[in-house]
Specification:
By secondary structure, the chain is mainly alpha-helical. It contains four helices and no strands. It is globular and about 35 Å long.
């Protein structure tokens, strides 16, 4: 797979894990991608955040869970 395809795949995986409330899994998805592609954790998290910026197609509750997962993944010292 190409890096571009993997970016879409991890954004989708992050989205699904966030909607299901698996916040630790969301963080692990970001960590794994950053490790494989030698990227900074925060840069990958920012990329996923931008990819999931549009709330179209989500209920208000789902979008709230996605944004909560992004905030929790950003607090890597917790």
């Amino acid at each position: 797979m190409t890096k571009r395809m993997d970016m879409y795949r991890i954004a989708n995986a992050f989205q699904q894990a966030a909607i299901e409330g698996h916040y630790e899994q969301c963080s692990n998805i970001i960590k794994n991608f950053a490790h494989v592609y030698h990227e900074e954790y925060q840069a990958v998290l920012s990329m996923v955040s931008v990819m999931l910026m549009d709330s179209v197609g989500f209920t208000a509750e789902e979008y709230k869970q996605i944004k909560t997962a992004i905030r929790k993944a950003g607090n890597i010292n917790d």
